[in-house]
Amino acid sequence: MTSGTHSTPRRRDPAAAGASIPRRVLFGQETRTSLALSPDGRSLAWLERRNTHWQVRTATLENLTAGGEGTWLTALPGGVEDVKWASDDAHLLVTRDPHGDERTVLSAVAIRGTAIHDLTPPGVSARLLAVSGRRPELLLASVGGHLERREISTGARLSVRPNPGFFRWIIDHASLEAEGGLLMRGDGGIDVCARAGDTWPVVFSVGHEDAATTSLARSSQGGRYFYLLTSAGAQTTRLVELDTRTGEIAEILAEAPDADVCSVWFDPVTGRPRAAALSRARKQTVVLDEDAALDAHRLCPDPEAELTFLGSSDDDRLWLGAVSRADRSPEYRILDRVTGSILHRIPQRPELSAFDLATPEPIEFSSRDGLSIHGYVTFPPAVARKGLPTVLLVHGGPWERDTWRYDGLVQLLADRGYLCLQVNFRGSTGYGKAFLNAGDREWAGLMHQDLVDAVGHVTAQGWADPENIAIMGASYGGYAALVGAAFTPDLFRCAVDLCGPANLATVISSIPAHWTAARTLMTKRVGDPETEPEFCWERSPLSRIDDIEIPLLIVHGGKDIRVRREESEAIVNALRERGVPHRYLLYPEEGHFFRSRANWMHLLTSVEEFLAEHLGGAAEEPGPESDGALVS
Q1: CATH architecture assignment, domain 356-626
Q2: Tens-digit pLDDT profile for residues 537-565
């Protein structure tokens, strides 16, 4: 059953439409992620799927050279989210979310003997902030927002520094000491505070217009300087050195007139920035240390690829980096700076090497009010670029962006015969503060119009079939899918909503009380449900439920604390009352981010079936990789 404005979907030959790459390959069981090099440079640790969850695996470089596969550490319930080495080379520090509710626990795993003990209490979210070669037996962590120094081998809490209200601490990684923090003001601006004894005076401030483009912060050794990413005094985000004594920007370390600086790699010895990355169509690495330029080129000589620095040995001889292209598996590389040779090339997704992948292509077009909008199109291989069924895949955040990188979902859509359209609509990061701030209070407004204009662009090129277009996304992207179905119902044939808000007032009001920065951000940039409930309601998909006629696939995690399951169920109940075709999938053990591979594969199978039914592309039959999925 479809909207009366669309004709019956044209069924396509599955062989012509795609379905040549199995889901199990695109989202491989053997995928390696979060690679970490030990401080002595002798070993690696990484995350890999064991059964259905991420677990930790380790190997010495000698073992890898001999063709070894590494050793599994003891499996942890619910899996592991991240792994780092302690500076003592004897422990791994793992972050896990045992219940899927984002109350993360920090644990230490002894390499010899595999003893595991939690370093932080259950029920309070914890995050590793720093380890130090000067004090290898210690770590610094944020526990419930407060700063704690703990002994790694025992978990003993040695000191606690109460949080004066910071949403991000500024750390001297050498001394494991807090030197400052970022404080969100009530007006949406940010104060940068520096430690002065037991007080935290403000040394630098930015207004609301620079708040979303003021992010990363780290202290120099001794706390004299802070390295900040901020657009203060410029149109794009720059990497600057802030003198905490004078409150002045002492030096601009990296900048570009047309792109934000999006990440920084710090020298492990001096603590100074060694390289920065610019957020262009392809991420561009800018080496700030001349001595590092040649080695950066050795790690990644391909001008079409992106380089991400991941770490180094304590003596700085070995570097670990990730080299990625959107049309192949990312590859981890270990460089020996003395010999200039690559010691190891470790594919993140080794099974992909047997398949030809689609290549995302950057696009640019003008919105109806004259903004330059960027994005990517990915065409199905070996199919004429004309009249294609199309999936508009909307990124989350929304204060994020789509990038030129391997994306299994993009490859899945292209392989199944769809043109995949990704749009960095206004409000996305990477293009300067004016573009980001142009999204303020434009949820379901000009932000959505940018998506509509993107559809108009690919239709005008003849690439997309205007009668066979779906809109799909997660989080903000799920909201955009609901807006597409409710606000522009004649444009889309169907919609896929993954954990998207249905009512802006309820989703903002349900933000956890301790997420004060997030609440301030939402009320300033989206709307305040307490002072302007009508505005929030009119921008909510639920307010136009009577206009939804197209089929929907709606998905939610039962433990999601960012967007509560009630958001999806309000839409589902209203659709059921009106008899609108829909399918609702609730994964009771998942949160905002899926942890179980079986659940994720079940979801992807359902998405394939739904899109094939309504757009006419190919769909792979359900496979054993979904066995064990828990869904209702």
Answers
A1: 3-Layer(aba) Sandwich (3.40)
A2: 999 999 999 999 999 999 999 999 999 99
